[in-house]
Every structure is written in structure tokens, then in C-alpha cells.
Amino acid sequence: MVLDTEDWQAASAPGLHLAFRPVHDVITARVFAYEAVLRGPDGEEGDDILARIPADRHAELDRRVAAGAVTRAMEMGLGTTTARLLIPIHAPNAAPAGAALTAATLAGQRTGLIPERMIFGIHGFADVPGQQLADLVDGHARAGALTAFLGLGHDPIGFSPCVRYRPAMVRLDPDLVNGIDASWSRRLMLEELAPRLREQGIRVIADGVSHEGVLRRLRSFGIFHLQGDLVAPPMPGMLPPTRIERPAAAA
């Protein structure tokens, strides 16, 4: 199927493979976490990959991604860093809550990565039934892991699950973040959104950070965890360093 041993190698492997990209913390000027990114042979990601796989195999895909992300990250040296590992759950409705956690935990037992260093990123969280979201967040917390809701954008519907189920983190959609330094409407939205999330104890990650103007604007909103081209693109076969140097982060 997908994600066999060959697929965990570099991008030249046929089929699906994993790449990694950092989440940069501008306060410490260090990598806060590495996100495992599932990619197809032509660079496809996320929904494009799921659309090509039968629905009855989505749960298997998420389990194999979780186990493979832990295995590959540890092979590439995650254990020698302080960074966490952000593990994607692309089809949270396809399996009982905890399936990806179990797969990742077992891989962690083999490789030495404890659950406390794992973050499970829920894609499409706004479309997940409330009880499933609650079970995911609670199950991860009981194991010592964190939960992130990925892809909060312009649609206000996505805000309610964040407040109700209280993930440790919420990642902003690139469409909301990119160009914020030149968009009055996007600035207004984040000026309201960011403090409301912080009031709930939720850490905000901004994706789509393409240049320092965006970085500076996000800092002014109290958003200090970043992803995007300015930080580093997804790279197969390695844990890429952040491109943001300490002086730029402190500007």
C-alpha cells in the first residue's frame, strides 16, 4: 500500500513519504517542534493525498504516519534536541480516538521518544464531531501528549471548537497569515483572535510566514511560534534548521 519501509527514505522513494519542517519560537530563537508532513511523489499533501486513498484505509494511513513520524524523526536526531514532534492526524473521523496515539507511543517505546514530547495535530477539526474532539484532546492529555487544532482561518465557525475543547495549541491557516503586513482586514481579525485564544490558555502557531514584515506584525499580536518559508520548507530525510537568525527574531 503506502508508507512501507522504502517510503520512509528520501524524496526519491516512490509513493508516499515524510518530510519535516520546524516550528520556530521567536522568544527562544530555537525550534519548538518539528512537524511531520505527509507528501506524495509529486509534492501532494493533506486532502489531495486522502482523496486518492479509499476511505476505509484512512485510519491505517494515520496510524502508519504516526508510527513512521516517530521512527524517522528519532533516526534523524530528534532525541538529541529539545524539540517536540508534531504528528498529523489527517482523518480524525476514520478511527477511534487514540489510534494514532497508540501507534506513536509504541514507536516511541522502541526509539526512546516519550509521549510528553509529542503533539498531535488535528486536521479538519471544525468538521469533527464534538465528542470525538473531546476524546482526542482528553486522551492525548492523559498520556502526557499535547493536541493542536490545525487550520484556523477566516471562518468563525472554527473558533468555537477551540474554546470549547481547549487544545494546547491552534495553528492559523496560511491564507490568514500570509500578507498580513499589507492587509488591514487580516490584521483586524488577528488583533481580535490572538488575545481571545491566549485568554483560553491556547498557544498560537502562525503558518505561512513568508518574510520579516509578517514576522514583525505577528510579534506585535503576541504570536511567537511560526512556520512558513521564512522559517524553513518541508525537507525529506532531515530535520531542517530554522532560517531565522537570533538577531532577526529579536528585532
Automatic annotation (TrEMBL):
Pfam families: EAL
Domain called EAL: residue spans: 1-248
Protein name: EAL domain-containing protein (Putative c-di-GMP-specific phosphodiesterase class I)
